[in-house]
Specification:
Strand content: 15-25%
Strand order of the largest sheet: 3-4-2-5-6-1-7
């Protein structure tokens, strides 16, 4: 598979309790998760105790951002659809697929053990959901992978979690992307977007991926 240097860097370093990518749109951060990260984590934990979960803003965004791309790569036999009980069959494992904009949507798994959690658009979640997931990663092999676009400096993920990584020595790997980290985008598209966003807050946020990022 042909990957960017940034994606290869993630593959070398993503062996922590939390592995989080933040950055511009179209930078390649979620493509790698669909191609490699999610299948790898699920298969590594297949048959082990605990739940596999995919969390997103809603079940609709999980289907659009995660399951559809997975299905395009691996086919419908390996990547199923979300059923009425909020689960989908992925790579032979039952995976819970839950929206995170409201805490009551995730309360059904409260108190359970999670062996793997993938988080889509993490910065758009309710904070209590993230706290609940943290408490459920109770196996020695439990881990969380997540991706997000930058938000504001007072965002709960920045203040209550990411700002503490270095000081409190949390087991978190953070990787930052700009649109220039994706060498597979058409040059004309990137050039036009840079011109269109130049001089606005959107240039820092959507091109550089750090306008109000937790990592600036």
């Amino acid at each position: 598979m042909i990957l960017s240097e940034k994606q290869k860097e993630f593959m070398r370093n993503c062996y922590h309790r939390y592995n989080i990518k933040v950055g511009a749109r179209r930078c390649g951060k979620t493509y790698l998760d669909n191609l490699w990260t999610i299948p790898k984590r699920i298969l590594e934990r297949k048959g082990k105790d605990g739940l596999c979960c995919i969390f997103g803003v809603s079940k609709g965004t999980i289907e659009r951002n995660v399951l559809q791309p997975l299905r395009q790569i691996y086919g419908s036999e390996l990547v199923g659809s979300i059923s009425s009980n909020n689960t989908a069959r992925l790579f032979g494992e039952e995976v819970w697929c839950l929206g995170c904009e409201k805490v009551n949507q995730v309360s059904k798994i409260q108190g359970t053990s999670i062996k793997y959690a993938y988080g889509d658009e993490v910065a758009k979640w309710n904070e209590e959901v993230f706290v609940m997931i943290q408490a459920s990663l109770d196996k020695e092999y439990s881990c969380f992978d997540g991706a997000l676009n930058p938000e504001n400096q007072s965002h709960w993920l920045k203040k209550d979690f990411l700002d503490r990584v270095e000081e409190d020595k949390l087991d978190v790997y953070v990787q930052h992307y700009t649109i220039f980290d994706n060498p597979f985008l058409p040059k004309e598209f990137v050039d036009n977007l840079c011109k269109e966003y130049k001089g606005t807050v959107f240039y820092d946020r959507l091109i550089l991926g750090w306008h109000t990022s937790p990592f600036k």
